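Hey, quick one: can you model this chain's 3D structure?
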Amino acid sequence: MSFRPSVSHSLMVSTALASVMLLVMGVCFLVIGYQNPAPGQRKVFFAAGALALGLLIGSLAFRIRSYEMSGGNLIVKVGFGEKLFPLTGLEKVEITEAPFSGAWRTLGVGGLWSYYGRFRSAQLGAFRAYATSSASGVLLVWPDKKVLITPQEPEQFLQAMKAWQ
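Sure thing. Here's the predicted structure for all 165 residues.
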């Protein structure tokens, strides 16, 4: 069973602004490099343009495409790959409101395509986020980890989890 991610307005705006900024910077640097007669400077502008465009393309690796339940696993399709979480040993599944309220990003991305990585908060403790909205999410709790996801239909996701269990 597949679930689309719920994308917040603020995430769409920040992603659009950052993407446009990287695209414009990359193109401008390439154009300036092309027009610059000094060979040493030309290389610097070409490298800066390629870097900006590379960052834009590379940022797609953090885009959450879908959440799937298959064969007793939760599969989070992220960028060009996927993360697999076996559902065996799952202790609790609950909807949580404002999961990022007071959260600290310890290692991850927050605001370009997704909220992705490791976070910590007083409310949830340490958790991994594969989220596209900061308003609410579904928290999955195992004995050794917590994972936050943001399916578009959290109630249907909970029903599917109960049916699996």
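One thing worth noting: The chain has three helices and ten strands.
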